[in-house]
Specification:
This protein has about 525 residues and is of the alpha+beta class. The chain has 13 helices and 15 strands. It is elongated.
């Protein structure tokens, strides 16, 4: 026997089936709003999504309401009837909005006039996901008790469907995260491979989070070093500087920080744990955080930070292993040379002892020649032994860090360091001395003339060029009205002697940018 359902019940079932056919969360929400309007014959419908504090973070309209959105241009504050639904946590039906006791505030002039109102909370479990608002039943009619019952039933069913769609979105996001990061960092046989893995990791993280910028920032003695970036690299220094306090704080507390930015956007600052490479943090700026991802994005970025820390530790371990092998080899060679010197001295002594029977002139000539030879050999061997025993000086990067720390007191603030490419391996030691001299001169000029409040220092190494870039936000100057002083002439001369060039860009009130570029030679 066929069961004849009431028209309202059949419409409700059709709406539930239609909503359940979509796994995309945004699609589910749109279908909920459209189905609610169709069931009640409402002209306008909006599902307002709220955050943990109950503030509206997104709106999902029906087609008619969506046409008004660009003109309204503001998010509701949750006053009046819009706030009554979440406070009461029940459906509210109003015949005339203007006559209701809690109706307050004014709508923007471009907002459609709402006289009839029906609202209901949409709960996922016991937690408010959002609130469904319907306005103006077509034909000027009032919303009925049946309309209210249908919307309540649809809202309860919607809560289950939203939870299913959120679960699907979370699973899909995790799948994409595993696919994007699973292969990164497996082959780290060289420093270049590690750099490539780190670059791939931050690029994948930015794509996954839909962020404006992702940066890995090292913290060395209070100095922030932008080591990897993905996204708007031109603004990276300014963005990192604006979050400098949070970055330093999380590297000390080891507790990730989430900062809501409004309109479904958030910024994450997550510490990177390492045992060998020093403290640091991942900055994910203005990520797209949907309601589904609010609970898992921070967790997965934290896991990514752990993966990044492992890559850094392995790279550092390989570097230290290479240095240890070199040190051992140097020590072996030094011992061999010492033994060689002793043996040669012994052999020479035997030769001199055997020269007793020679006449005076031959003996004198042999002794003088042997002494001269030994003096030269001993001097040369002593130099080689000293060089092998002491090893090389500090790396270019360590020298740059030390120099920036030295000038922090002179400038009154800590400069920001930004790194691109294999900075420590790009130049011969002699060229590294020119880099340090140029940086010292540039920082001195900033301290003397710029009246700056921030300075960023960028070192970029490629297979062809090495670039030092110093940017300050100081007073600037008109380059056309200033001749090269001794400082600029020296910097230009250093670059040209090495086959490079110097470029200084400035304008009054716009700060100064110095770019010093030379060819890489090693």
């Amino acid at each position: 026997m066929d069961l004849e359902l009431p028209t309202e019940a059949r419409a409700l079932l059709d709406a539930v089936v239609a909503i359940g056919s979509d796994l995309d969360l945004r699609g589910v929400l749109s279908r909920i709003v459209e189905a609610s309007c169709q069931l009640t014959d409402a002209e306008y419908g909006v599902l307002g999504i709220v955050d943990d504090e109950g503030a509206f973070i997104d709106l999902v309209p029906n087609a008619e309401a969506g046409q008004q959105f660009d003109q309204v241009g503001m998010m509701p504050k949750g006053h009046g009837l819009l706030g009554l639904v979440p406070r009461e946590r029940r459906s509210i039906r109003v015949e005339h909005v203007a006559e209701h006791p809690v109706s307050s505030g004014t709508f923007p002039g471009s907002h459609p006039v709402i006289d009839r109102f029906l609202g209901a909370p949409v709960l996922v479990g016991e937690r408010a996901f959002g609130h469904l608002y319907l306005g103006n039943k077509r034909g000027g009619m009032e919303f009925t008790a049946t309309d209210q019952a249908l919307v309540e039933a649809l809202a309860r069913a919607a809560g289950v469907m939203i939870e299913n769609a959120r679960t699907y979105e979370q699973v899909e996001w995790r799948r994409r995260w595993l696919a994007a990061t699973g292969e990164i960092g497996r082959d780290l046989t060289g420093a270049a491979s590690a750099e490539e893995a780190l670059d791939e990791l931050v690029v994948s993280l930015r794509d996954l989070c839909g962020a404006r910028l992702v940066a890995y920032v090292g913290v060395a003695g209070g100095l922030l070093e932008i080591r990897q970036t993905a996204g708007d690299s031109d603004s990276a220094a300014a963005v990192v500087d604006s979050y400098a306090d949070q970055i330093r704080e999380v590297t000390v507390s080891r507790v990730p920080e989430r900062r809501p930015e409004g309109s479904g956007r958030t910024t994450l600052v997550v510490p990177v744990d390492t045992r060998l490479d020093g403290p640091g943090a991942i900055l994910v700026e203005h990520a797209e955080e949907t309601p589904s991802l609010r609970d898992i994005m921070l967790d997965l970025v934290t896991v990514t930070a752990s993966q990044l820390g492992l890559i850094l530790d392995r790279r550092q371990a390989l570097s230290e292993r290479a240095r240890l092998l070199v040190a051992r080899d140097r020590d072996r060679i030094a011992r061999d040379l010492h033994d060689l010197v002793i043996q040669r001295l012994f052999a020479t002594g035997m030769q001199l002892q055997g020269a007793r029977d020679l006449d005076a002139a031959e003996l004198r000539a042999r002794v003088d020649g042997t002494i001269a030879e030994l003096d030269g050999a001993i001097s040369e061997l002593r130099s080689v032994i000293f060089e092998l025993g002491t090893g090389t000086d500090r790396s270019l990067l360590e020298e740059v860090r030390s120099l920036l720390g030295e000038y922090a007191g002179v400038l009154g603030f800590q400069p920001l360091l930004r790194l691109h490419g294999p900075v420590d391996r790009a130049l011969a030691p002699d060229a590294g001395g020119h880099v340090l001299g140029t940086l010292r001169e540039a920082l001195s000029n900033v301290a003397r003339h710029a009246r700056a409040s921030s300075v960023s220092v960028e070192l970029t190494a490629s297979s062809a060029w090495f670039r030092l870039r110093v940017v300050d936000d100081g007073a600037g100057f008109d380059p056309t009205g200033v001749a090269d002083g001794n400082g600029s002439a020296n910097l230009r001369g250093r670059a040209e002697d090495l086959g490079g060039h110097l470029q200084v860009t400035s304008a009054p009130g716009a700060g100064t940018t110095l770019e010093w570029v030379i060819p890489t030679v090693g």
